[in-house]
Write a structure and sequence with these properties.
By secondary structure, the protein is an alpha/beta fold. The chain has helices at about 20, 40-50, 60-70, 75-80, 90-100, 105-115, 125-150, 160-165, 175-180, 180-190, 195-210, 225-230, 240-255, 265-275, 285-300, 305-310; strands at about 10-15, 30-35, 55-60, 85, 120-125, 220-225. It contains 16 helices and six strands. It is globular and about 60 Å long. The relative contact order is 0.10.
Length: about 300
């Protein structure tokens, strides 16, 4: 449980994830849920908790109720593992107790497969390859949670998910071990590290070899950053996909040795990279403007001859 605060806590607060399960390690996030009817309370409380190192999942009761009605497995995750620290009127406990998961998640599995394609092409350099590893980490966990849930198995820790996929024959024998390095690479990426591209490539290649080809890219290709910046948008309806694609373009800008901190909007996006839960803070409608800004900054610093040989 987090220490007391002078800021008004949310109406409902809970610890969840690896810390609640008791299997946290050096690569784990400290997941904390806050729920309230007042968005201003959520913003203030999120800022305080994040300053203390928590990874905050912030919801209004209306939003969490909508997720529950839709059968979102995040609610099942909370139902099974959350340790409620505060629930002033019992609304969170009641919502979780009433939740029932769906029996099929076909559309979500398909959407996750589209998301995983972001790992297929990344900008050259160690950061680009770490980005691919992070995308695959998220994709593997989502695919496993959804696929196992359809079989009545509800697990949420990455290692448990990978082991469950192997036990169900979705991964070949030894597949869970091959995927284990993705957690470490994800941690390196989100902590802003940059390491040898070749060493990461080999680990990512090993992971891809055990993943079902129908849902994950067959390989990861590192490309000239201009290709990434100048590539057309994929047109996905997922806000998370769109924003992670912006992140990939920002990495391409950095691979050109251009500093996003010179622009306030890009600097904000760079800060969001360190906290993927905060992606909901940017409107999807702003994505085309940010994408155009990235391209404009790159074009202003890259010789026109090289840009004209780009990939439109």
């Amino acid at each position: 449980m987090l220490p007391k605060t002078s800021i008004r806590p949310a109406s409902a607060e809970a610890l969840f994830g690896s810390t609640a399960r008791g299997d946290a390690d050096a690569h784990s996030d400290r997941d904390f849920l806050i729920v309230d009817d007042d968005p201003k309370v959520l913003v203030a409380r999120s800022a305080e908790l994040e300053a203390r190192g928590a990874s905050v999942a912030s919801y209004t009761f209306a939003k969490l109720k909508a997720l529950s009605t839709h059968g979102a497995l995040f609610v099942q995750h909370l139902k099974l593992e959350a340790q409620i620290c505060r629930d002033t009127d019992g609304r969170l406990a009641k919502l979780l107790a009433q939740f029932r998961p769906r029996t099929t998640y076909t559309q979500e599995i398909s959407d996750n497969a589209a998301f995983a394609t972001l790992a297929a092409n990344v900008p050259t350099g160690g950061r680009g390859m770490l980005f691919a590893a992070d995308i695959l980490y998220v994709g593997v966990r989502n695919h496993g949670v959804l696929t196992l849930a359809e079989r009545g198995i509800h697990v949420y820790g990455f290692n448990a998910v990978a082991e469950g996929l192997e036990a169900e024959g979705i991964l070949a024998p030894g597949g869970a071990r091959a995927l284990s390095s993705l957690r470490f690479l994800k941690s390196l990426y989100r902590n802003g590290e940059c390491v040898c591209e070749r060493s990461i490539h080999d680990k990512v290649k090993t992971a891809l070899e055990v993943l079902p080809a129908a849902f994950f890219p067959k390989s990861v290709e590192t490309l000239d950053p201009l290709w990434i910046i100048d590539a057309p948008s994929a047109g996905s309806s997922s806000a998370y996909f769109v924003l992670r694609d912006l992140e990939r373009r920002l990495l391409a800008l950095q691979a050109l040795e251009l500093d996003p901190r010179t622009d306030a909007e890009l600097a904000q996006l760079a800060r969001w990279i360190a906290n993927p839960r905060a992606y909901a803070s940017i409107s999807q409608s702003l994505a085309p403007n940010v994408q155009a800004k990235i391209a404009k900054i790159a074009q202003s610093h890259v010789p026109s001859k090289r840009w004209s040989g780009s990939y439109g």
